[in-house]
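Sanity check

After download, print the first record. It should look like this:
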Amino acid sequence: MRTLALDDLCEKFTRLNADAVDHLQHLVASWGLIADLSFSDLLLFAPAKDEQSRFVVLGLARPTTAQTVYADDPVGNVEEDVTRPYVARAWRSGEICAGDTLIPRLGERVVVKAIPVRYRDAIVAVMTIESLPTTGRRPSLLERNYVETAEQITKMITAGTFPFSTEALEAQEAPRVGDGIIRLDGKARITYASPNAVSALRRLGVKESIESKTLADLGIEDTALRTAFTMLAPVSEEVESDDSSVAFSVIPIVESGSAVGAVILARDVTDIRSRDKLLLTKDATIREIHHRVKNNLQTIASLLRLQGRRLASPEAKRAIEESVRRIRAIALVHEVLSREAGEQIPFKAIVRPLLAMVEEALVSSEANIAFTIEGDAPDLPVEIATPLAIVLTELVQNAVLHGFPREEEGHEPSGEVQVRMAQGDGIFTLEVIDDGIGLPADFSPAEDARLGMQIVQTLVEGELGGEIEIEADKGTCVRVRVPTAEPLASE
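Expected structure tokens:
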């Protein structure tokens, strides 16, 4: 059965309005921070729409810093208030309630803290922080600071100041609690830094003691921190020093409408940025290679044109000109690759320049042959786009030369050549249609001795695994179908 999303659960089980649901969406998007800081599982409850003695579980967050209480997923369960006394008490009182209780579905007692979730002036849900009872071990300095920070944030939840309305969903590279945490007081002085955070600061060149210092005292850019204190909203920035990069995510601690401190999540992203730079360098190198290949192909085409001018035979000259156009078609693919990132080519970006190339070479200024493009083309891998560019060049060239022959001097042909494209079910369809004189009744592509048609057949059927259809009725239509994706497996 499909797991329902939070908004679906709210619509099905609760009476919460859209604004309240949006507030809970923001909470669920950012509450992983609280789970990690409290070393506990988080559950989100809201009263069922039929009565307030039953609560539906809207969400679950497991910590990455401790063992989870819930091996299964209780989201979507509806529970009675007698089995969730602290949830019911927090909901009715609007105050944080805590204690230990027996969870029947687990068969053991769990330490529970129930935090009312306030939105505007109303309690809309209850978030619980749940963990297994601990032994008499004294918590470490890191654990105490984690838990104290979690308590500050949960008070903000009850006050309605967390989550922040401007807070975006967490990015994949956003700092996490385990990456490093720095606590600040109301004057932005450091009161605690975890070992990983200290290491991150060392990467930025901080060597001296950091206790009771501000980021500015340590020579670190603090624009994000000052913005967070002023705007009372989370702010992220990346600080670089020499060859090191550290991402900071500043979360202000708000009480009575002002910032009384902040928590900074710090992550050393030096290795990530180094990989990014390598990828950019690799991408630039690949583009440069395509640019040089294009230039080399254009040089070859120029040399062939020079050679063609020295030939006396019209047939030899025509063969050279056709070869030049084929080379220019391939060069056009590499020109696009030299501008676009990745191995996919927007094929439609190639079509118009190809038509312009054929028109310039074969259509006189007095002729009235129009070229049109219909439909759209997908981004194609270079191994498909390159032969397909040659195929299109040959088909448009054939349409002009054989569909609109120049019958006599002073009598220029007129008509239209259409290129139509469509993509569906992993098949790309390319059609070249002209309204010229058409094909002979006995025409057969397999027996056509012209090199251009032989190239088309070889590329489409042999290299691309496609098929060709030719229709000749008041002109000619050549339809090429080429697979662009693996067919879906039958169930």
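If your output differs, re-run the checksum step. Summary of this record's structure: The longest strand covers residues 108-119.
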